[in-house]
Fold this sequence. Notes:
- The chain is an alpha+beta fold.
- Helices cover about 30% and strands about 35% of the residues.
- It is built from 4 helices and 7 strands.
- β2 (about 65-70) and β3 (about 75-90) form a beta hairpin.
- α1 crosses α2 and α3 (about 110-125) packs across α4 (about 140-150).
- The longest helix is centred in the first third of the chain and has 18 residues, at about 45-65.
- The two termini are about 25 Å apart.
Amino acid sequence: xxxxxxxxxxxxxxxxxxxxxxxxxxxxxxxxxxxxxxxxxxxxxxxxxxxxxxxxxxxxxxxxxxxxxxxxxxxxxxxxxxxxxxxxxxxxxxxxxxxxxxxxxxxxxxxxxxxxxxxxxxxxxxxxxxxxxxxxxxxxxxxxxxxxxxxxxxxxxxxxxxxxxxxxxxxxxx
Length: 174
């Protein structure tokens, strides 16, 4: 059975839409970029990027949400942002995630997009804990989570190669 598909409301500068395989070049450039993926084990290959899109399409179908393409109102590709199920210390939790093209970073796009996702969670999925699971040296992502109102709630020790920082906040119904 498929879930009701959700989409954040457009913001002052950004619109959201579901990913399709037509976005493979954009996604492969984004998550294949060493700067964007600096805090991941490695940048994604083109094949891994195609699998990433397929996973998001499955999440839209099963969960009603996932990472969405974020664009300027004139259709310029900014990156991806959304809400997915992740796990920390082997416990499932709802996470807001974001990746922005390197040349567009530090302009507030990740925060703006993530705030729209928090609003969507408040309207559709609350009350719930919303998290951001972040590499502890990723100061920019930690700052975005803090701007959303998240605080450090745990350390994820489920991976042998890293202890990730779990930021979180309780989201009440809108």
